[in-house]
Amino acid sequence: MPDATTLADLDIDGIDFAFEDNPDLHATLADLRARKPYAVVPFAGVRAIALLTEDLVAAAFRDEKIFPAKAIYPLSTGPVLGHTLQCMTGREHRINKALVSRPFRRLATAALAEPLITPIAHQLVDAFADRGEADLVAEFTTAFPVRVISALLGLPDRDVTDMARWAHDLFNFPVDADAAMRASREFTEYITPVLAERRVNPGDDLISTLVGENVEGEELGDDQILAFLRLLFPAGADTTHLSLGSTLSALLTHPDQLDLVRADPDEQIRWAIAEGLRWEPPVAMLPRFCPEAVTWEGIDIPANTPMIFAITAANRDPATYPDPDRFDITRQVMPATAFGGGPHACLGNWLALVEMQTALAVLLERLPGLRLRAGAEEQARVTSMVAAALRGPRSLPVEWDV
Ligand code: HEM
């Protein structure tokens, strides 16, 4: 059996995969993958194993025994989010996930598009449509998923600014732990009385639904609901805003593809979103952990080895995606691991897809001739964020015909 001293030599040096943006990330990962399906890479001052093919990343997500989520999340998010689904395993995880799943099913989320999600997209666009130019990250993509979550929770519009600040600060936990702890405290203080009220007077919002659920005789306690609601910010808002931004960045820098979408939005918007998720998945380099020494898929992994599930490398695996660096919505495939897999697979994938499809439809409808501002390609580039796990554009300076 391998032990902690036997992790192979580094396959690459000079870049820390935990903290540093690598402007040539895709080329770097492709070079490594051409040598073997995984690589030993520098990660937060130690060595990690990055899994680089779709087969390995998909298998790793399924293997909760070898790479249990609970080996990392209590440390990486526990202090601010609490004991979330991601910290659970086995029966506890199965029951808790079943208790929160119903409102996130495909049909339930599709039913939200017209009454809840589309009006939010229009409201945000109303604020700048007449102006002819905007930064879509600052004025649309960041705000949109937070507004959707606030509305799902049945919270008043006036509290949206606080929600957006908490979302931003929780997102930045690895960079500013104090702000994240403060956001966690403030949100919990704000939402606790709301939860108590919904227990007494339930409505048709998400919190009231969670309060009423019962699986195998078990119900959600306050602590479980509060942890779940805190998790909705990093899991549900940040991922979606980065992904929407990356897809817009891809379309705006590939005008031929944007023309295809414009020509047949009803058919092509969903494929543009799917290809955006493949081309630049927001959860790009997901850190996990291997607690026990093991030989897995022929790889000797010492105990306590940090792992990177390199979804972004899996999504450009030439064995699955021919000419993988080309952004091409005519592939018409949903990438297999953008939403994770196995027991901890994303709960919100259907909601995320409906949100992004709705947003893109509204933006194209309301902003005729939408295009990147001349010379803004570098600003709109997709880059690594908050450590290097997540990716998205920092700004999207655009203009349109008014
Ligand atoms: C484009 C948008 C999204 C992407 C790419 C995404 C991706 C992911 C990935 C990769 C995981 C697995 C993490 C792991 O195994 O360690 C995950 C888990 C999760 N996601 Fe998403 N997500 C998105 C949107 C959402 C939304 C909108 C929600 C809810 C409102 C959500 C809720 C969750 C939850 C609760 C989990 C944890 C599930 C568990 O541990 O059982 N996500 N997501």
General description of the model:
This protein is α+β, with helices and mostly antiparallel strands and 402 residues long. The protein has one domain (25-399): Cytochrome p450 (Orthogonal Bundle). The chain is built from 17 helices and 11 strands. Strands 1-2-7-4 form a 4-stranded mixed sheet. Strands 3-11-8 form a 3-stranded antiparallel sheet. A two-stranded antiparallel ribbon has the order 5-6. α10 (160-171) crosses α11 (177-200). The radius of gyration is 21 Å and the shape is globular. Pfam families: p450. Belongs to the cytochrome P450 family. It comes from Rhodococcus olei. Keywords: Heme, Iron, Metal-binding, Monooxygenase, Oxidoreductase.
Give the assembly state of these chains.
single chain
How helix-rich are the residues, as a percent range?
A: 40-55%
What is the tally of helical segments? Answer: 17
Overall tally of structural domains:
1
Q: Please tally the β strands and state the result.
A: 11
CATH topology: Cytochrome p450
